[in-house]
Amino acid sequence: MTLEETMNLLASKGTEQTKKTYRRHGAPEPFFGVKIGDMKPIVKLIKGDQELAMQLYETGNSDAMYMAGLVADGRKMKRAQLERWVKNSVWHMHASFTVPNVAAEHPDAIELALKWIDSPKELVASAGWGTLSAVMCMRPDEELPIKQIQALLTRVVKTLKTTPNHVRCEMNNFVICCGTYVAPLADEAMEAAKKIGKVDVDMGDTACQVPDAASYILKSRRGLPVAPKRKTTKC
Q1: Buried b / exposed e across 22-33, counting CB within 10 Å, b at 16+?
Q2: d(CA 23, CA 187)
Q3: Which of 115, 53, 48, 63 is CA-nearest to residue 87?
Q4: Cβ–Cβ under 8 Å, residues 81 and 52
Q5: Considering Cα of 119, then 125, then 24, then 89, what sign does the dihedral take?
């Protein structure tokens, strides 16, 4: 499928009601208002088309940018492309999901994430913490920089309350993923979660809330010491 054909098909799935919902979550124009579930049939049609995924993200259309992340293979992307994706993120759905989901597949994911978390730009920093979370969900513990992650847990406890709005949400999720998937740090992450406690994030005109990290870790483990690693964080 061509970019034009794909955009026309994506536009046909949009509804005004979904646009209203996305606006409340902070989505900027242009976008069609397509539910993620309604993107999935299109994703199946274009799966594996890396070039098309890159073109979709470059449109600047929020729906197309999100769908690009479902199609793209982060292992095939160049660092420069990932840097451009994080730079061009226009709202938290891209910074918290699209960019981390593809960046985590790249061999240099951790190096990129550690750079991004220090960015003064909220969306870039959010993408950095999101990428670290995604990496911990997927990579075997023996491939993780445990000491660095341990230091970041300490950093989260000390600094979360004073970080920008959506970065707090991603730092909280970082603790959850560490406690859920990383066996060597599972207990330490749980202690960090208890110290953090309730995290307040302005979610706009929505009913969304930041999950309590300690409770969510226990729920996600499902009675196990840690949960099994995931093959992908894309959904």
Answers
A1: beeebbeeebbb
A2: 39
A3: 115
A4: no
A5: positive
pLDDT digits (tens, 9 = 90+) for 36-58: 999 999 999 999 999 999 999 99
Digit-coded pLDDT (tens) for 62-119: 999 999 999 999 999 999 999 999 999 999 999 999 999 999 999 999 999 999 999 9
The one-letter amino acid code at 63 reads: D
CA angle, 210 then 219 then 197, to 5°: 40
Q: Per-residue DSSP letters for 18-62?
A: HHHHHHHTTPPSS-----HHHHHHHHHHHTT-HHHHHHHHHT--H
The torsion defined by the Cα of 69, 75, 79 and 80, in degrees rounded to 10, comes to -50
Contacts of 199 (CB under 8 A, 6+ apart): 160, 168, 169, 172, 210, 213
Q: Is 2 helix (H, G, I), strand (E, B) or coil?
A: coil
Q: How confident is the model at residue 201 (pLDDT cuts 50, 70, 90)?
A: confident
What b/e readout covers 171-184, taking b as 16+ CB neighbours within 10 angstroms? bbbbbbbbbbbbeb
DSSP code string of 165-189: HHHHHHHHHHHHHHHHH-GGGHHHH
CA neighbor of 12 nearest in space, from 63, 49, 46, 60? 63
3-state percent helix, strand, coil for the chain, nearest multiple of 5:
65, 0, 35
The DSSP secondary-structure symbol of 106 reads S
Q: Which two tokens stand for residue 195?
A: 């110290």
